[in-house]
Fold these 3 entries.
Entry 1:
Amino acid sequence: MIDVNLTLNTINNEHSYLLEYYNKAIKGLDSINCAPVDIKSLIENGEIVIIGQELMTCLENLINDLDNPDYYYDNSIAELRIEFIETFCKHTKSPFYGKPFLLELWEKALIEVIYSFRWSETGLRRFKKVILLIGRKNGKSAICGALSMAEFMCGNGGSDLICSSNDDNQASIIYDEINTMREMFDPKEKRTHKNQKGIFNLITRSSIKKLSDRTRNKEGRNIDFAILDESHEMKDNIIAKSIEQSQSTKDEPLFINITTEGFINDGYLDEELRYGREVLNGEREDPDILVWLYTQDSEEEIFQDELTWYKANPNLGVCKKRAYLVSQIRSAQAKKSDRVFVLAKDFNVKQTSATRWLEESDINNDATFDYEEFRGYFGFSSTDLSETTDLTSSKVLIMKPNSNKKYIIQKYFIPESKLNSKEAPYREWVEAGYVTKCEGNDIDYSKITQWHEELRKKYKIRIFKAGCDKWNAKYWRKEMDEKLGIDVENVPMDKYTLSNPMKSVEADFKDGLIIYNNNPVDRWCFLNTCLKVDKEGLIYPIKSSDVTQRIDGSVTLIILYVLLKRYRTEYMNIT
């Protein structure tokens, strides 16, 4: 029978960080009606903690499990690791470099829970797997490094420890964290040693090595303790399964999956969280897994109440600066691309891989212009050379002296065979002059050249720089050069090239700086376009799940901004 005293925060007459954390979370809920300044003071003084409903459910389940006769509770092993970390481990990164690693309450509570629940029948540790979902910049690598170091020095002899991730560089982050802590702990290598194969305990013969998708040596291991970092990047479970299978011969394996949310749909993390939440909510029984999730209760609360930020960021104000998060929120409110990234990485709000880029309110602009205004001007040209049977877009961007406004002249081209397609009112657009019809089943690229020639002859609009994607470009580029003397450069359609220009397009739309004469084909393309965000916050345009929706007009606008960023200074000197 486990002796629990919630009032004194003791289990079996020993102080429990789990109970302390739980009670402070309850006080946090009770403080909801207090003034924000008072709540903030209580948080900073360590009197309360603010957590989300998912973590509260986890804590409530654990408190209830203290009454379950299947378990007994022994925190001595956890205390040993906590004491080791706070006594021998030091921080490895600025601004805390060289300072003692003093654990936060949530970190102590987590370590205590992992190691203290034990099976009454066998005496073995209950939890074999941990899912820790936490916002970025909350000391994730540091706590993993410290816990790994404690396990390395305090765990069973002959243990194999693994630092793992989808990417070898990511796996190196925690591995290097451990090694730096080791060097501070044992500078003369009397107890430990590192070589190219790994880190070794000379006394216990335990080892620490890296494992990633690129190491190609995932079989034949016998792992006791594994950290899987940033699993949101993994499309499949190959690495995780190889770890779990290698632990099958162990009585007390431990596999810690620590990550932020990501952008891959139906990948490994989605499957793990789906399963973990079923366990958390009592829909599935699996006593071996600990699901510890720092999540928000809603997306709306993030923008309405700063105090809720603690739910996904338990180290807010400790190693994650409030001013930083304020600036991130400000960016998220201004830019859709930043919003997607911040919600996923800072607040663990799952974002779909395809998120609409622009809203109607962004692209609404009643301003119009007449081409005559730009007689004799230079402009940038861009063309999205689609497959020959698709809608094709070509645009020209012109700016006036001493103005940040961008004026867009556009023309679309479509094969005659596509006019009756139900995906858009192409025939109506052809009759209105927005789209040029090409006879037959293919785009006649010479008509794109003719359009540029018409702009030159009728309005004296000349092309300063031109760009296109690489698709089907060779013949048309040659024609543009020979007939009009326009050198069309290839613009790579990758995130590194398109990300910043795409963000600039969004910002200029919001500021009303893009004048496109409310072209209906443009509007259709703009609203069809989704953005995809990668782990570095880079973005690029993609279609939605509806493959009939075209985004060609968006791509040509982004290409124009690629050229504008490259040559803006030169261009403004000739306008």
Note: The longest helix spans residues 552-574.
Entry 2:
Amino acid sequence: MHSGLPFVSGIAVQRYLAAEEGLDAAYAEGCTHWYIDMSLPSELPDQWPRARRRGLAARARTLGLTPIIHGNFRVPYATEITELRNAALGYLRTELRLAADLNAPAVIIHGGAYVEPRPTRSGREATLARFISTLEVAQADATSLGTELWLENLSHYPRFRPFTYVFTRREEYAQVLARIPTTRFILDVGHANVNQSMALPALREFAPSIAALSLSNNDGSADDHLGLDHGTLVVADLLQAVHRVNWRGVIAFETRGESAGAGVEVLRTAWKRTEEA
């Protein structure tokens, strides 16, 4: 699919399928990339014997698509339990080795969760600090294997839950970059729209460090993965920000019930208006 959008270097799609089925689905939709979702039971590290890796890599080459490893968002990278945090790093290394075997340019990593019924500011800060320390080690591992880590923001749920996600707020981008200036991000604009309006400020401030945009919409209360023109995130405003900061990179569609092609059409229409403004 040729998007006709000057800021798009590649188009990925997330269909929540086994890797082989996801590859075929992305090819059918005309994408250049597809997600391998490591949180699915069929994609856990022990489900990847050498023959499967080789077969998938060969088929991806034949079809001309590139995988992006969407790391398991449940991994407790920021836990206060040292033994679990070390085990989480070991788990991440299995995802990084898979990326290397499949010639994937990136593994998407998430901050995990801070589990506390009554979270405090100091508790959140300590949790983020632990995650950044883990990320620092992981970045070196990724570099040694010839791939990148892309840090994805999770949804911000500030109340009425026994946990809060780690790495959800704009100011946390700055904290990560202060410790690890080479960090690359995938800005999930749907997550950034949950209980806040973070997508535009984050893009404006951190565009040089943002490798990709994950695209979906919602009503602002939960991560619904709606189509781009169904929700409270205004696509035209997002593209105006893209235009102003001259951002370019991969776009990834995580829209349930809407094709990547339909999403591209929404973007084309909004982009045309942006150029005419």
Note: The domain at 8-276 is CATH 3.20.20.150 (TIM Barrel).
Entry 3:
Amino acid sequence: MDVIVSRTRLAECAPLYSYRALVSLEDVDPDRRHRVAVLHVQTATIRAACTRIADTIAPHRWFERDMAVSFDLAAQLGLAARRIEALLLPSVFPEMTTWLAPIALRLEHDPGSASHRVATIDLNAAFDAVVPRIDTLTAAELAPPRSTDRRAA
């Protein structure tokens, strides 16, 4: 599975950057593609259809939810997605050292915007497997060393 990780300089706010990790839509389970939010990401070489990590890891019951009973699940899903994002980002952007990916990060230097594809394990419906060990989950468990692959996006 490919995840596009990116660092984007926020306009007129140097050196303030936004970091994102998005799943390529072609890697999302075909049964859930019509149920996820689709974001079109412009990289250096292509325009890619992607979705959020939260939509990718969501359990099947998330898509069949009754809005009145899903608040706890929504909070857990958001936390798990942000933690996975924070584990994937440092593999390409070593300055990202926070436990959860922040909305924006002010840097002492100005490295510029960049995006890369990172190979990961299959994250489709991985919520139930990830949440019980979210506090101890490591980047190596998401992107095993033998399959860690960093390419320009």
Note: The chain has one domain: 2-152.
